[in-house]
Amino acid sequence: MTSSVYNNPLSHIRVNFGEYIEKMKQQDNEHRINGVPDYSFAIDLKLREQLRKLPFFYKLSKKMAEHSEARERQLKLASAVQAGPGQFSDIYDMTIDCAKRLRIGPPNVFIIHNQEMNAYTYASDTSTPTIVIHSGIIERLTPGELKCVIGHECGHVHNEHIVYNSICLWIENLLSTNKSFLFEMLSMTNILLFYEWSRAAEITCDRAALICSDNLDDAVNVNKKLAFGTFLNKEVDVSTEDLRRQFESLSVSASVVTELYNTHPSSIRRVLASEEFIKCDLLYEWRPELKNPEMTLQSKEETDKKCEKYTAVIKEARKRGVK
Length: 323
What we know:
Strand content: 5-15%
Strand order of the largest sheet: 3-4-6-5
Number of helices: 15
Radius of gyration: 22 Å
Largest sheet: 4 strands, mixed
């Protein structure tokens, strides 16, 4: 009788879960500095540190984010369409790809009927975030541009912005209903600090959009379309150089004061800041296949310094006499 030896075809595969978790941590740490994603805008990081010094700020923000995330997920399960392998599978695939790229947990993605070009995120950590996408933005962007929007939202998760942003939303609501109560609690300096941080956080996440993109122009075109609007994926007819000249006019205008209470930078500012990150060497450490060999690259520090020019709303306002 001839004996036979069974060869397990899966024997070479390592199945130790602890080793898997450790490998994932090592991969994630490759692009983190002191626990923060390496592409984060320097002003975003600086202002986050200042916000955390406010008494009870982080603990309160974290609790508010946890409550909002759980509540909104249940509301969207009842009223929106959740993307998955069986419905809106293209959006689901884009989301999974962006999450893998940034090494965050796969977000729950919901599509709601709303013609405003918008998307937003609820999350208290990086493991189970929820992204909401308006139908209007799906109708008006190309698939590549839509993926950049999803990448931008994943950037908020990756940087744990939602924890901080929950306080900003609370301040917005109070400002619209009871300004005197808010000013009793917070100084004008701290209120402006919240808004300045929120604008800087958007620059960070526009960088995440570039990292997640398949075509760098798509990420820039999203903000161009947000500036002028679009109809059913119409081709973008906006010149970056003309926008740059337009910005130079803005920077010497008193109208900049109106931006102090905006949570987002103007689309023009975002386009120009994204163009600077496209020239940053760090982007191509994430996405070497997107690098043009003829490009002259600049460091992350140089990029941040140039982006400050496009985002320093408070400095510009002080030049106009606002204290």
